[in-house]
Design goal:
The protein starts with a helix and ends in a 6-residue tail after the last strand. 38% of the residues lie in helices and 22% in strands. It is an alpha+beta fold. A hairpin with a 6-residue loop joins strand 7 and strand 8. The radius of gyration is 35 Å and the shape is elongated. InterPro entries: NFACT_RNA-bd (IPR008532), RQC_Subunit_NEMF (IPR051608), RqcH_bacterial (IPR043682).
């Protein structure tokens, strides 16, 4: 990735063109580190994403949907109070750094015009979003509060004077005079590291590209420099590179990468593609971290219980020995003398000698009865332990299926998974203000030949899909013997290609999605049954056939 000062400059140009003069109509804070401003401009709504995420900090227009919390966070409420219905005057980059300043004008409660600034500082784990009053330069609020114990250079708290991050002793590549630039570009070693250490806002990737261009024009480095910082951005080409499984994004083509990129219409469209999966995984993690920890601990506890039950079951294997000794002792009662502690007899099952321990305080009949009692205890225990073993294993399988679904979940899927766990008595329902959220439906895809394919997002949907939505002659698929989603082909006689496509989807939506070869069972829905009282998503089936496929998340 390369969201450096060079990319920030290009993004500010794009945002100014799209948003300057627009009115801020809505403000949302869907996640802890992210704010979305809905800006009405030239008859269209634009969603401006501001992110202070430590790894994915950025500013961009976005088309990716998001879920708002039932109760807006305090920072969101502050922004609404001060900025809603404000007009964007301009968007600026500070120096060549990853700091963007959005200037708003808005009439306050007294009708006076106020100048406000929303500042986005993209600085890794120190990233922040700060609202200040332009006249007083005082901070109204910020998404992350930073006190003196955390930063001795500046306070980032409501009421404090805003102070920019400390400047490094580097030159602004866009403002340096030609004489100084000429001397700097004639350094003995003109390397990417040298350029990074000398000029503001250059990632190593950008410095490497600049070095490549300068070395390509050794007799006209000044032209190469101005082309890179001025001419190129007048006709930028948002580029997405995939090189050796690594992804890069750039505002223009980087010829030093020596790879043909995918070109996008806008920088924002490029970032939507680059960040969608990465940011969504992080959003899911934010929403489900505590839940995942709880479920992981539950599995550890259940596996410990399973180990203990298996140990108890091993002990019950003595029941046949207890029964045999009781029967032999009954047969040889006449040989038992008062006070004997053991009796050696011939085992008529094996014709081998066998020593039977006795309690000298008990009569011969009482000793025999003691062995029969132990036999019955082990026998009854074995039945009960077998039930507990089955129930415990089913619970482990169920929780593993939920964890598997969380790994694949989109942010909008997490409430659905939580709802399932509430209905299964794993979680308690929290009282939430606001309207209940509309939960997402099944994943709906279309095979190459046009056949509809449905996939459950969680176990409640799996049950509904298989037992209520699918026709009895439709084809049901599931990864063999492992947690995964139910997949339905809405056809009674699908083509081999459609079967293969649906099986690959079933493999992907399972615990073994990272494997290369996954067995997937398929059968008509009428052969799939849900046992009474079984956990969500659990079914039994027969007459199935099996395909071996490579997992795929698309057709």
């Amino acid at each position: 990735m390369s969201f450096d000062g060079y990319f920030t400059h290009a993004m500010v140009m794009e945002l100014n063109q799209a948003l300057s003069g627009g009115r801020l109509s809505k403000i949302h804070q869907p996640y802890d580190n992210e704010v979305v401003l809905v800006i009405r401009h030239q008859g269209k709504n634009h969603r401006l994403l501001l992110s202070s995420h430590p790894s994915y900090g950025r500013i961009q227009l976005t088309e990716i949907p998001y879920e708002n919390p039932a109760t807006p966070p305090n920072f969101c409420m502050t922004l609404r109070k001060h900025l809603e219905n404000g007009i964007i005057e301009k968007i600026e980059q500070i120096q060549n750094d990853r700091i963007v300043q959005i200037s708003f004008t808005k009439r306050n409660e007294l009708g006076d015009l106020e100048d406000l600034r929303l500042i986005i500082e993209i600085m890794g784990r120190h990233s922040n979003i700060i609202l200040i009053n332009q006249e007083s330069q005082k901070i109204i609020d910020c998404i992350k509060h930073v006190g003196s114990s955390q930063n001795s250079y500046r306070l980032l708290l409501p009421g404090a004077l805003y102070r920019q991050p400390p400047q490094q002793a580097k030159k602004n590549p866009r403002e340096i005079d030609d004489v100084s630039l000429f001397h700097l570009l004639n350094a003995e070693e003109l390397s990417a590291v040298y350029l990074q250490e000398t000029f503001q806002g250059l990632s190593f990737l950008t410095a490497q590209e600049l070095t490549y261009r300068l070395s390509s024009m050794p007799n006209d480095k000044m032209k190469a420099w101005h082309d890179f910082f001025i001419t190129s951005l007048d006709a930028y080409q948002p580029a997405h590179y995939l090189i050796d499984s690594k992804e890069y994004f750039t505002a223009i083509r980087y010829y030093s990468l020596q790879k043909e990129p995918t070109i996008y219409d806008t920088l924002s469209a490029l970032l939507d593609v680059y960040y969608q999966d990465k940011a969504n995984r992080d959003r899911v993690k934010q929403q489900s971290q505590a839940l995942e920890k709880r479920l992981t601990n539950d599995i550890k506890r259940l596996r410990k219980k399973l180990k203990s039950l298996n140990k108890d079951m091993q002990a019950t294997h003595k029941k046949e020995e207890m029964q045999r000794k009781g029967e032999l002792l009954t047969t040889y009662l006449h040989l038992v003398q008062p006070g004997m502690s053991e009796l050696e007899v011939t085992d008529y099952y094996t014709n081998e000698p066998l020593v039977i321990s006795l309690n000298p305080q008990h009569t011969p009949a009482e000793n025999a009865q003691s062995y029969f009692k132990r036999y019955n205890k082990y026998k009854t225990g074995a039945v009960e332990i077998a039930k507990q073993l089955e129930a415990t294993q089913q619970e482990i399988d169920y929780i593993e299926s939920v964890l598997s679904q969380l790994e694949l979940a989109q942010p909008q899927d997490v409430p659905l998974i939580k709802e399932e766990l509430i209905e299964s008595d794993y979680l308690k329902r929290k009282k939430e203000k606001g309207k209940p959220k509309k939960l997402p439906r099944f994943i709906e895809l279309t095979a190459t030949d046009g056949t509809p394919i449905l996939i459950g997002r969680n176990n409640l949907q799996n049950d509904e899909l298989t037992t209520k939505v699918a026709h009895k002659n439709h084809i049901w698929l599931h990864a063999k013997d492992i947690p995964g989603s139910h997949v339905i082909i809405k056809d009674s006689n699908p083509s081999d290609q459609t079967l293969s496509e649906a099986a690959s989807l079933a493999a992907y939506h399972s615990k073994y999605r990272l494997s290369n070869n996954v067995p997937v069972d398929y059968v008509q829905v009428k052969h799939v049954k849900k046992p009474k009282g079984a956990k969500p998503g659990f079914v039994i089936y027969e007459n199935q056939k099996t395909l071996y496929v490579t997992p795929k998340n698309h057709i």
